[in-house]
Amino acid sequence: MKARKEMVRMGTKIGAALGGIAFLIFGLVPGFYFGSYGTLVVLKHLMGGPVEATILVRMVVAVGILLGIVCVGSVTIVVGSILGTGLGYLVEAVTAPVEVKETADVKTQSR
Question: For the whole model, what pTM was predicted?
Answer without folding.
Answer: 0.75
